[in-house]
Design goal:
Elements lengths: L10 E12 L2 E14 L2 E5 L5 E5 L3 E6 L5 H7 L5 H10 L5 E5 L2 E5 L10 E2 L8 H14 L6 E4 L3 H8 L2 E16 H4 L15 E4 L4 H7 L7 H9 L4 E6 L9 E8 L2 E9 L8 H15 L4 E6 L4 H7 L5 E11 L21
Parallel strand pairs: 14-15
Antiparallel strand pairs: 1-2, 1-5, 2-3, 3-4, 6-7, 7-8, 9-16, 10-15, 10-16, 11-12, 12-13, 13-14
The chain binds coenzyme A.
Coenzyme A binds next to strand 14, helix 8, strand 15 and helix 9.
């Protein structure tokens, strides 16, 4: 079999032996998203959301196949390549300043989050790489921020930057971008998935002061810049449990829908109220809201070491689609390094 665990998240075709051979047919094919791969076998999620588990011993041939054409891909959600999903994530977390460099997007939001203060290097910058990187350095110098590029781990552009002397500056192990389909995520709710009753989740149109007090990771960034990123996409909602009670909410979350995708972020429960099922209630409410906004798939970003988050999201079918990390000019870079600048450090949430 030519596929491995690193192919999880790719579109694949797998030919496998039927458990009960039919007259004239001993094998069949399945095409879809590879959602699991281990020594025992692999699992493919088809366009309709069905999961087909194939034991390793029955695999005849398996290989990656190109993504489906865009229009059909949008309907089927997770069948999307890393660059396209990075663009969806970018739309859902809009930076204050977005300046084009060819196809690349140079982003800035006063240092609030790496995502909104780094280059999205998708496509062609329209310049030779050294010139493009020089322009990137100039842009971040102008904004008094360190030059950062958000690169998909293992992608061609990451290698080209490393070859040009850039170095991994943040999250060397990569931030996980996880995806699921709405058809997989929503029916998981029910008696086996947790209580269906409990404290009410309110959906707010804006991140209120109370909501922000739980989010609490904005440090010295002006409030309007933070609000611009959090609430800047046209279709967003802010979930809160216990809004208006003395002491403020006990759980929050944010949902955004762009291009048929629901992005989940800022899911947070105050430390004294964890393990009561509050995060699950927030995620359920955001999924329901996203479905109502027409989303057919969902994504989120989390750290590989965040066991609580990974355990929370796994029952919804979230699997890792790709990873990204941030590169900055190293000492050997062909553009000027900026050793005296601080790394963007206000981004507990990538
Ligand atoms: C992750 C977080 C939101 C979970 O909130 P929570 O309200 O405690 O989660 P829930 O009670 O709804 O738990 C749902 C499931 O998630 C998993 N889970 C939650 N916390 C866990 C932990 N510390 N360790 C292992 N699994 C955990 C469990 O499977 C749990 O189900 P169970 O209690 O029936 O075993 C919370 O720990 C938090 O606010 N962390 C800091 C912010 C953060 O990391 N947010 C996620 C960013 S992507």
């Amino acid at each position: 079999m030519t596929l491995g665990p690193r192919d999880v998240g790719r579109r694949v075709v797998v030919r496998y032996l039927l458990e009960t051979p039919q007259p004239g047919a001993s094998a069949t094919d399945v095409v879809g998203l590879l959602v699991a791969h281990d020594a025992a076998g692999l699992e493919v999620e088809t366009r309709t959301g069905d999961r087909v588990r194939v034991p390793a011993a029955r695999v005849v041939a398996a290989k990656p196949v190109p993504p489906r054409p865009a229009a059909r891909r949008e309907r089927s959600g997770p069948l999307i390549d890393a660059d396209a999903l990075q663009q969806i994530c970018d739309q859902g977390w809009p930076a204050r300043t977005r300046q084009r460099l060819g196809d690349w997007v140079l982003r800035e939001a006063a240092g609030f989050t790496g995502r909104a203060n780094s280059v999205l290097p998708v496509g062609d910058p329209g310049l030779p790489l050294d010139d493009a990187l020089e322009a990137v350095q100039g842009f971040y110098d102008d904004h008094d921020l360190p030059a950062l590029v958000q690169a998909v781990l293992g992608a061609g552009v990451e290698q080209r930057l490393l070859d040009a002397g850039w170095r991994v500056a943040r999250h060397p192990e990569g931030v996980l971008v996880q995806v699921t389909s709405m058809s997989r995520a929503r029916p998981t709710r029910g008696p086996t998935h947790g209580p269906t009753h409990g404290p009410k989740v309110e959906l707010l149109e804006t991140p209120t002061e109370e909501w922000m007090s739980v989010y609490g990771r904005t440090a010295d960034v002006p409030a309007d810049v933070v609000a611009g990123v959090l609430a800047g996409a046209p279709v967003t909602t802010f979930a809160a449990v216990g809004s208006g009670r003395p002491g403020g909410p006990v759980a929050i979350g944010r949902g955004v829908v762009t291009g048929g995708w629901l992005g989940l972020s800022a899911v947070e429960v105050v430390p004294t109220r964890r393990r009561e099922g509050l995060a699950r209630r927030v995620v359920d409410a955001l999924l329901d809201w996203g479905a109502g906004q027409g989303a057919e798939a969902a994504y989120l970003q989390t750290m590989p070491g965040n066991a609580a988050a990974l355990m929370l999201y796994a029952p919804y079918g979230f699997v890792t689609h790709h990873r990204y990390r941030y590169l900055a000019p190293g000492p050997g870079a062909r553009v000027r390094p900026a050793p005296d600048r601080q790394a963007v450090g206000r981004d507990r949430a990538h």
